[in-house]
Amino acid sequence: MINRTALRKKMKLWQSVSDKDLKRFIFATLFSEDIDNGNKVLSSIQKESKVGKNFKRLMSPSSLKQLSDGGLIYNRLAPIEVLLNVIQNMLMSESSEINKYIVLSKKYEKNLFSNNYEECKKVLEEIEDTVGFSVWGCSQHLLVEELSSGLEANKKLLGKYRKEMGNNLIVNTLLDFYSCSSEKNTGYLNYKDKIDKYFGSLGDSVVVSYLKFKLDYNVVCTTDIISIVLQIDSQLSIIDLYNSFIEILQCNSYSNYFNGEEVAVNISQYISDYRLTNLLILYGKYDELESYLEKNKIVYEIIEKYTIGDYDTVIRMSSEYIRQNQEDFQMRHFGAKALINSNQELENSTLALEDIYNVYSR
């Protein structure tokens, strides 16, 4: 329990500490208080201009070194409800930056799936300049280097990152494996074998749950995983925190570890993301369903044409749709399968489409 006097003392202390200590002190406090006191702490941080400004800056790191600097706080006993409250408030207060990131990441994905790698680099740099560095951003730089210039460029960039991030075990591990998964010649089974061996080498370390969530595509969410992921990613960057938060909301929609409906409704008032829209539709809380269905009418028409076996129409419509919506991965599946079912060859190769076509055509 934190009283007003103790809180004032903390604010005074936090004004003069290093970035590393500020991050550690704030999260140690937030993860140990109940919801009401956590809200008081966050409110005081936002009101105290120097502390608030420094904390905001740390949530949007200006470099990988700043992101990686310092140890990470983890409170095994922190209730999920407390963590969700803290994270929701953090995300809502940083909603402007998150909305910028969502717009720019969509632009990045369009260029990525169009094989426009130089544009990809520019957009990633714009995200770093306007929203901040993130493990996600570094992982995408590694992917783009692999796709545009090959394995040597991927590993050269990884070496540069290693020098910048120092001895931060978690960030080092994440980027090592993201570099590995980006390799063109590394298949899923080979990658899965590598991460499983690494997890085994860590024994009962608490970080295993976190790393499984971040690296193992088939991991099943648990309350322990949700707890450590929210705590660690909140100390890395606002981008990494938001990405994991959305993924946890999606997993929770069928696991029901917490009231996901309430969380999705609250966050969607501040952040515009199609994944939040999908969750609202799932929970029956989306007020603009008719306009949403009308906007996505072409998608349902393509699915209907595929269902009745009109593959030539699917190929034509999906090709036109993908040109305008490069980031729509699902529609690439329909296009590739329609080509195979109509015994046609793939003419225009782009990232993912060729891989999907090759998988289905075997």
Q: Calculate the terminal CA-CA distance, rounded to whole Å.
A: 62 Å
Number of helices, counting only DSSP H or I runs of 4 residues or more: 22
Shape: globular
Strand content: under 5%
Unreliable parts: none
Helix and strand run: HHHHHHHHHHHHHHHHHHHHHH
How many β-strand runs? 0
The main β sheet shows up as: none
Radius of gyration, taken over Cα atoms and rounded to an integer in Å: 22 Å
Percent helix, as a range, is over 70%
Q: What structural category characterises the helix and strand content?
A: mainly alpha
> What is the arithmetic mean of pLDDT?
88
Give the SSE layout:
Layout: H1 4-14, H2 19-30, H3 35-47, H4 49-59, H5 64-68, H6 80-93, H7 95-113, H8 117-130, H9 135-149, H10 151-165, H11 169-182, H12 188-201, H13 207-215, H14 223-233, H15 238-255, H16 260-268, H17 274-282, H18 289-295, H19 297-307, H20 311-324, H21 329-341, H22 353-361
Helix pairs in contact: 3-4, 3-6, 6-14, 7-8, 8-9, 9-10, 9-11, 10-11, 11-13, 13-14, 14-15, 15-17, 16-17, 19-20, 20-21, 21-22
